[in-house]
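Thread: Pilus assembly protein, structure

OP (GT): Posting the sequence first so everyone is looking at the same thing. Length is 208 residues per the record. Can we get the structure tokens written out before standup tomorrow? I want them in the notebook alongside the other entries.
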Amino acid sequence: MRRRAHPAMTFVGSTAGASAVEFALVLPVMLTLLVGMSEMAHAIDNWRKVTLLGRTVADLTSQGDSSDPIASTTMTDIMGASSAVLRPFGTANVKIVVSALGVDTTASVTSPRVCSSIATSNAKARVTGIASDLTIPVGFNTNGNRYVIAEVTMPYSPMVGASLVKFATGSGTITVSSVFPWPVRNGAIHNSKTSTPEVTMPGGAPCP
């Protein structure tokens, strides 16, 4: 007479449903990877566009216009380029500061001088004088040199995981920023000590 296997032994030896169990274990990991990759791609795209905006603003400003100082309407148009460059990201909280800088190695061998500056309405223009928080870039550190710098900051809101970001930062957003120095392409020469042209921001004065 054939003996019946003990139910526990039958359960141990059974392979029915093994695939379903394995899938249930792997699914959360797969979903986490998918969401993480999507979030990373979204964040990188935002960072890339902020970087592109900084470069665009610096490049356009360095070309100046027919006015000296550069016309306010020209700078408004240049800063308004953010809506096109950052699309599909919103621009309401984007802050842009553009400054005209001069290199005076007799005053500082590492930091440039802010000669004039302008900012969007939600940002603050730089104060004129030696900018101790900036370093003269390599290639610009020639006495009398003039260049412009565009600083762009934007809060990035993650598609997922905002609660974790809020726990870490207290705001639920991550600040994305870019700083772009750019040589002056077209401007006026105001200082007999240098042959380098400079662009003066609206309402500002040339470098001393």
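GT: Both are above now. Quick notes for whoever picks this up: The first strand starts at residue 95 and ends at 102. The chain has a mean pLDDT of 84.
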